[in-house]
């Protein structure tokens, strides 16, 4: 007998699911029996408004395959967009089990050329675009828990290697994606009591975001395993969003092709306490001694 679908009956919201990784996640959740709210505002690669939201096509694709999906075309970085997103899930299906925060875009520039607008737009869509749907969903789950219906809820956030190690030419994006890791840690700690688990992924895959900038590494092979197919990232996202991931929260996973890596994050390394104030020269000498005993950080992407 085959195993029952991992997400049978669960209601899952995915932001930015009209294309790329979000679309792959939506199809993978639907294949595991989930009922979807497919969000996408439908913007250009740099966030400029586009005529139509591709969310509808993905929802139709899921329904055509016998699944359940509705489209939501709102902006998840606004309070109203985030509120209506959760409302659509509750009005359509009567419940919400999983939120996958995924939407975003890039405005890459070296720091000295990075305009204030490019900073604000990228921080807004990624960091605020994670916070607002998370707050909305968590408020619903807290109300459920208080009403005696403790949920088995999941949030999967989307960070990036850029946020974990840094990435040359992506100061705004790296800062936003690092912020998403910190938000994940806090949300996991704060919402555990309401039956919510919050984790993050740092994916890599061929989408419009990467297919030109990293054309060589992203290209599909003529035959064999297509490592950079975005669908390779989705199985872990489905598991993290399912009841099967019980007990896993506040963690960050890198996922690319067939590889899954758990990030070990910031932990205290070598340390000295003098029990009194250092002079600057002593502090420097001590810092150098500690660095000699500490692990070396990973290399910043794109650094020479
Ligand atoms: N592709 C990669 O290798 C890679 C690597 C690291 C992180 N990521 C992250 O994965 C996520 C998905 O990226 P992708 O590569 O699939 O890109 P993508 O451009 O294919 O998809 C992102 C989608 O988000 C939507 N979107 C943008 N702003 C929105 C808003 N305000 N409200 C609703 N929808 C909005 C866009 O219309 C688009 O369809 C992003 O958060 C990205 O930063 C991707």
Automatic annotation (TrEMBL):
Q: Where does the Ketoreductase domain start and stop, copy by copy?
A: 10-204
Q: Which Pfam families match?
A: adh_short
Which top-rank group of organisms is this from?
Answer: Bacteria
Keyword Oxidoreductase assigned to the entry: answer is yes
Q: Which SMART domains match?
A: PKS_KR (SM00822)
What Gene3D superfamilies does the record point to?
NAD(P)-binding Rossmann-like Domain (3.40.50.720)
Is Oxidoreductase included in the keywords of this UniProt record? yes
Task: Tell me which InterPro entries the record gives.
Answer: KR_dom, NAD(P)-bd_dom_sf, Peroxisomal_Beta-Oxidation, Sc_DH/Rdtase_CS, SDR_fam
Q: Which UniProt keywords apply?
A: Oxidoreductase
A molecular function (GO) held by this record is: oxidoreductase activity
Which family would the database say this protein is a member of? Belongs to the short-chain dehydrogenases/reductases (SDR) family.
- Protein name according to UniProt: Short-chain dehydrogenase
